[in-house]
Write a structure and sequence with these properties.
Elements: H1 2-39, H2 43-66, H3 68-78, H4 85-92, H5 94-102, E1 106-112, E2 116-130, E3 133-144, E4 157-161, E5 166-171, H6 172-180, H7 188-202
Antiparallel strand pairs: 1-2, 1-5, 2-3, 3-4
Length: about 210
């Protein structure tokens, strides 16, 4: 029963972002079709207007989110909403966006849930002792992962020892693109190379 519940939970978390995107795109498509119908009865012109709207709306929103003053204004309004305020704060906070764009956030591989390997992004580091070893300090990383396709930010925040991480040489921007494509554009050769280097370094006898 627990296994079934775990599988259902994983599937639910994966499906929800996809459904949200589909609903949003369907709403935009319906809106664009209605806009076209207002100006003409020609199916060809309606199709062209719809296509232009589908291309133009994301570009406009992308341009607006790239403007610092828009994000600042959005944070002032949307960031104060209950429950979802923290989510809006993440997407609109220019510090996160600039760090992702600049390549400051590094992609890592790490073990998750036993023998499973996953990818994520290091967003912060701090030094603290291991539980039960108060005198021994180690470097811990705040890792955003494993990401949930197709939206990488919808991921748990984990505390992982830096010694247990494999830096892939890529940035979190690459992680976003990999997850958005449902993993189809993952650079597996690069990830496999880093994994082998990690195994050889930690097991020189092999």
């Amino acid at each position: 029963m627990k296994k079934i519940l775990s599988v259902w939970k994983t599937g639910f978390i994966t499906v929800v972002p996809v459904l949200v995107i589909i609903i949003i795109m369907a709403s935009i498509l319906n809106w664009a079709s209605n806009i076209g119908a207002v100006f003409t009865d020609s199916k060809t012109m309606i199709w062209l207007i719809t296509a232009a709207a589908l291309l133009g709306v994301p570009i406009i929103f992308g341009w607006l989110l790239s403007c610092k003053w828009v994000r600042t204004f959005g944070l002032e309004i949307l960031g104060k909403l209950p429950v979802v305020g923290s989510l809006f704060s993440f997407f609109l906070n220019h510090d996160y966006i600039e760090r992702i764009k600049s390549g400051d956030l590094q992609e890592v591989m790490f073990k998750y849930a036993g023998s499973t390997w996953t990818i994520g992004g290091v967003v912060n580091k701090f030094t603290a002792p291991i539980y039960g070893h108060h005198g021994h300090l180690v470097t811990w990383c705040v890792v955003l992962g494993p990401p949930t396709a197709p939206l990488a930010p919808t991921a748990p925040v984990l505390l992982v020892k830096e010694a247990d991480l494999i830096y892939t040489g890529r940035t979190y921007k690459d992680t976003l693109l990999t997850v958005a494509s449902f993993g189809f554009n993952a650079d597996m050769s690069s990830l496999l190379k880093k994994y082998k280097e990690h195994i050889i370094f930690n097991n020189p006898a092999n």
